[in-house]
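Fig. S4 source data, part A: sequence.
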Amino acid sequence: MRKAALSRSDATLALAPWLFTLGFFVLWELACRLFGISAFVLPAPSTILSAVWEYRSQLAFHAAHTLWMTLAGFLLATGAGLLLGMLFGASRLINAGTYPLLVGFNSIPKVAVVPILVFWFGVGWLPPVLTAFLISFFPIVVNVATGISTIEPETEDVLRALGASKRDIIVKVGVPRAMPYFFGSLKVAITLAYVGSVIGEQNASNVGLGNLLTRASAAFEVPLVWAALIVLAVMGVVMYVATVLVERSMTGWAQRSHFAT
């Protein structure tokens, strides 16, 4: 009986994202049709899907460029964020000394940094990659540092009594303990990486969905603008789901129980 209830619950949870998303688009379509909203103001989903099909070659070309630039920036942010997070979590002195600089830099709108990147590297693929990196590595650093720095003092005392060094505590206890924090930050960082790459493409690239959005907006091609936005949203969801699947395979022990409400 309990297994059957859990099976039904799992099936409901699996279907929920599809049903909610379908319901959202159905309501959007009905609102556009019932209230006669102009396609110039807000295209109906059917109009956007027609634009996706009409511009499919163009969208696929630019989406491929956005995808690899986003992934490049995201992977750089993951590596740098993990290393810096371990460093900050392991040393209270370094954490206290560098945190104001890190927070101050993260407070600068990254769109204001893009012109500097253009001055340094010119127009091309590098500014979008670096913008994606700069906008997405901060949450990784903070979450990894939090996971490591909040090891229970009692745990540290026991490990030291058993002869563990500080390095052993960080690597063998702190890093595994920080994994749920780490993957939580990755789910935020991957969406931010898309924001960063699009900002970079709009200002410093001749390819990518950001560049396509800029050109379509200038030409008042509203359905194409929405089509590009939908493609970006789908890419973001796919990468988010991929991150969740990796998280479940590596931190299954930290996942919520089936009996939790």
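Fig. S4 source data, part B ends here. Residues 72-252 form a domain with the MetI-like fold fold (CATH 1.10.3720.10).
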